[in-house]
Amino acid sequence: MISPKNRLLIILITLFSVNSAFSQALERPRLVVGIVVDQMRWDYLYRFYDRYGAHGFRRMLNEGLSCQNAMINYLPSYTAVGHATVYTGSVPSLHGIAANNFYRNSTGESIYCTQDNSVRGVGCPDPNATQGRMSPKNLQVTTITDELKLATNFRSKVVGIAIKDRGSILPAGHAADAAYWFDYKSGNWITSTWYRESLPKWLENYNEKKSWKKYIEKDWTTLYPIETYIQSTPDRNNYEEQFVENQGVEFPIKSAELSKTQGEGFMICQTPYGNAMTLDVAQLAVENEQLGADKITDFLTVSFSSPDYIGHRFGANSAKVEDNYLRLDHDLGEFLKFLDAKIGRDNYLVFLTSDHAGAHNGQFLLDNKIAAGNWEQDIYADSLNSYLAKKFDAEKIVRNLDNYQINFDIRKIDSLKLDFEKIREESVKYMSQFSVFQYVVDLTKISEAVVPAKLREMIINGYNREFSGAVQLVLKAGFYSDSDLRGATHGSWNPYDTHIPLLFFGWGINKATTTAEVHMTDIAATIAAMLHIQMPSACIGKPVF
Ligand SMILES: [Zn+2]
To answer: Same domain, yes or no, for 298 and 222?
Structure first.
């Protein structure tokens, strides 16, 4: 018999353990927000630091964890590869996204990273148009967002938002509730049947109103007086790509007028207003999909695509890039304030990084006596083809030199029973004679190549035997394929392309700075560790703290 006194004790002990079990419940943030700023160089955090407001980048830097030496650890440094790597913690050799556009070596089929002809567009006027036929099918491993879904038995919600399809789809992963991207032709935000059969009402309404048009009805003026843009080349210069030939691209950029010839959807992408539009849609998603509304962690991925378009067109030293970051800083600050109010300032975790950085304009460097140059890849491809044609009595066995690799027509080589090893050897020999190349490396013999260890690892990580070219071309610093030397680009191993910002902010993050080298592949590993969920299926990264 249990005495009444003992019974009371048992009840108290039971109550206490139930209570302590509750207090020991696993702590997770309500919402994780992954932010990728397309083409953001790490040094932009500091280049414009004094001009940033208190609520955007500076708030993240001053209250969060800043990894000062976050590096991309593969080649090539392109958008699709960057987004795939950030969210998988893996590298092209494993995750399968070898570039934005690549080839399936066995068949010669040309593949766009997120192309999927088995799905249809949702929200675009023609469901069979290319821009809607997109999915994460070509990504061969799980993302951190997939792992969150698996960890909570799919109770977590995952939504991806970006102007670019690849900036939305690859982060959101395979199991996402939705990824939305911008169809600049129709001016609609769209998705595909991979995710759902129709757009949610809130996005249909947004598309109907085309509320983003309010942004480009105004000209793109500078946020502050133009004479204060002392970190940039004077606005009138010859380094920038014009919208219309011989019309110049000085501030104010007449976005409304240019829309008439270039298209409104195109113009919003090319201005910082593309960032504002992206955040409007992200905010609507948080509100209408109830992201972060309960204790089951949700994940919102946001990628800002406009900084990449602006960087390509105007170059890193332009007042347009400076203005883009000042405006983005402001918009980001407003978005963090929105999250504070909606989710609670201690209930959400943000990371901010980029998919790749970007180089200066080549002519700008040359004019300032810094080594740079251009490299016409088609001319080099033709000349290599002529050389190989004489050696092997076969025309056009090189398809192209895309992605800084020699892409061979392997089916042709097989059908003609040519010696592929000998072809690669001759190609390395021929290309090595040109001074634009630092190294030319047969990718099947990387271990024999005399290249710095860091570069070797990047080459190995980037080499996917199913989808990569067979010979790697490493250009000298400052060299790009660029015919008119206007604007700028990225894709190389060099720090100006591969040194990326990495900030963690909010739930579970204490203010800190580290100069230790960490890698893009460490981001997903860090989030997995913080959430106590499984790492993505081919993650090779380590938590940064
Ligand atoms: Zn780009």
So the answer is: yes
Q: How far is the CA of 222 from the centre of ligand 1 (A)?
A: 23
* Shared-domain flag, residues 166 and 233: yes
Q: Is residue 26 part of a domain?
A: no
Alpha-carbon span 302 to 36, nearest angstrom: 6
Q: What is the per-residue pLDDT for 246? A: 87
- By three-state DSSP, how is residue 315 classified? coil
Q: Is 83 exposed, middle or buried (0-12, 13-18, 19+ CB in 10 A)?
A: buried
Domain assignment of residue 486, yes or no: no
What is the 513 CA–ligand 1 centroid distance (Å)? 28
Token representation of residue 427: 């190609």
Q: What is the pLDDT of residue 16?
A: 44
Cα separation, 280 vs 291, whole angstroms: 15
The yes-or-no answer on residue 193 being catalytic is no
E-only strand ranges, 354-475: 373-374, 398-400, 405-408, 437-442, 471-475
**173/266 same-domain check:** yes
Burial of 225 from C-beta contacts in 10 A (0-12 / 13-18 / 19+): exposed
* Whole-number pLDDT of residue 2: 52
524 and 402 within one domain: no
DSSP state of 220: B
> Cα of 306 to ligand 1 centre, how many Å?
10
Contact 92, 159 (CB under 8 A): no
| Mean pLDDT per 10-residue segment, the chain (545 residues) | 51 46 81 99 98 98 98 98 99 98 94 98 97 98 99 98 98 98 97 98 97 94 97 95 92 95 97 98 98 98 98 97 98 98 97 97 94 92 98 97 96 96 98 97 94 97 97 94 80 97 98 98 98 98 98
Q: Give the CATH number of the domain where residue 450 resides.
A: 3.30.1360.150
pTM over 0.85: yes
Same domain, 84 and 114: yes
Same domain, 417 and 361: no
Q: What is the domain extent for residue 413?
A: 376-435+437-475
pLDDT, residue 14, reads 45
Per the CB < 8 A criterion, the answer to whether 451 and 441 are in contact is yes
Q: Is there a single domain that holds both residue 326 and residue 389?
A: no
What span, in angstroms and rounded, lies between the C-alpha atoms of 156 and 213? 33
Ion ligand 1 residues within 5 Å by Cβ? 308
Q: Answer yes or no: is 351 within a domain.
A: no
Distance 309 CA to ligand 1 centre (A): 7
Residues 164, 49 share a domain: yes
Which one of 79, 114, 222, 498 is the catalytic residue?
79
CATH of residue 232: 3.40.720.10
- Reported residue count of the chain is 545
CB atoms within 10 A of CB 117: 11
C-alpha of residue 108 to centroid of ligand 1, in Å: 25
Q: Is residue 19 part of a domain?
A: no
